[in-house]
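Section 3.1: Structural characterization of target chains.
Under the original work plan, the team committed to producing a structural model for every single-chain target entering the pipeline before any wet-lab resources were allocated. The record below documents one such target. The sequence was received from the expression subgroup and is listed exactly as submitted; it comprises 243 residues.
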Amino acid sequence: MGTIRVGTSGWHFPEWRGDFYPRGLPQRTELQFLANRLDTVEINGTFYGLRKPADYKSWFERVPEDFVFAVKGHREVTHHKRLEDIDRDVAEFYESGVLDLGTKLGPVLWQLPPTLPWRAERLAAFLDLLPGPPVRHALEIRHPGWDHPELVRMLTERGVALCVAESAGRFPQPVEVGAADFVYVRLHGDQELYASAYTDSALDRWARRVREWARDRDVYVYFDNTMRGAAPHDAQALAERVG
């Protein structure tokens, strides 16, 4: 039986203050508050810019020993350079402090832009740059051309998970998740992208899928419906359902 972790995509959101976060809670303690209620979070700020080792050290020290961070890869690699000539950029990302999370480092998520067509040769070159075990990696696709049988084969060969992403029908939601030893799920909203809350029936549906995957591998689930504050509540509700 694998380990199931359920969290949110990020933790600094004004909409959460006075709701999930009690009114008057100092912003510097929001991560600690979340980490006492969930067992993982996805660091999204690393997508927009490289962080410093001191940032990762601070995050590491502010959460319990069994807490895990997923880290989103830098957009310079995926969106700006579109997987071309990225050797130094990938190295700089991992050298920025990501690996300093040590035992609290979960998967690293690389999200591709919706404007990037299927490019098998670019993907192969990119995957060859990723550090090996124990670091785990997941790939989120957003162009329909990437929902391709060759993609699953290439990721499976390298132990990379194909992200299961629900996005209100906006982006592809692959049916086959590959054969990595973990499953990575991002729930952006089933009715309205980044905004709509999940109903009880929708959470029940996802709980069934998560329990099925967890029979033989670890599962990480992150709610990204953050805009109206539903994400932490939905995460707690799903965590209760999967035990």
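DSSP finds nine helices and nine strands in the chain.
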